[in-house]
Amino acid sequence: MKRTNLIKATLVAGLAGAALSAGSATAQEAPAFDFAVETVSLQTTRDVARVYARLSDEAASYCGSLIQQGYETTGALSLCQSDVVDVVVQRIGDAQLSRYHDQVQSRSARPYATALN
């Protein structure tokens, strides 16, 4: 029988607010971001991919809610989402999830790296 451990990462919105360089959201005003995952959900690559997709979706939704009308730029949303995902992956501390996150980041950076050469 596998023991199921629940990992919960709570991110105070100050980080996400800092990503929105205009400062429209502050740590005092914005809600915390909560993400919970059971360690049994991180056993296979497919499971890790599902958890990561859920984290990315929830981070995008959270960051979208922080961006006030009139300041909805793709850059701000992407930066906030990236910051939230980075911190949550680090706080969860699972090796497979961290490797998957690194792979996703290197794939998304690759098109820009080749354009700069």
From TrEMBL:
<feature type="signal peptide">
    <location>
        <begin position="1"/>
        <end position="27"/>
    </location>
</feature>
<keyword id="KW-0732">Signal</keyword>
<dbReference type="InterPro" id="IPR030972">
    <property type="entry name" value="UrcA_uranyl"/>
</dbReference>
<protein>
    <submittedName>
        <fullName>UrcA family protein</fullName>
    </submittedName>
</protein>
